[in-house]
Amino acid sequence: MNDQSVITALLMKSHQRLDAARILCAEGHYEDSINRAYYAMYLAALALLYRKGVEVKTHAGLISAIGSEYVKTGELAPEHGRALNLIEELREEVDYTICREIMREEVVSVITKATDFVVCAEQICAKDCTDGFSS
Fold this sequence. Notes:
The protein has helices at residues 3-26, 30-51, 59-71, 78-96, 104-134. By secondary structure, the chain is mainly alpha-helical.
């Protein structure tokens, strides 16, 4: 698999996670929906980091690397970095505790932020394709 194929595969899996998040939300499985929305963002973030040759081993490492490689450079808006961090925290909370009640409106907001993040990641990665063709 070449670099662009890996990035494409990660982004495709990211969209599959978003689809699952939407379906789970519609069925009332809010906690699972948040989990899938976060992993959509996670996979898109991996694609972004792969593009720059950055490898991470933890969720915290991924969030930190997105901040240093993309948010601080201005390639990714700060609200996307904040969303990644907040949704990862929420995902941990719903995955590992039993005392948090999730409302549909919160899940819809999470899915919207996750979708925005994935679309932005795709746009950044797409620049590589167009830059490669214009050379």
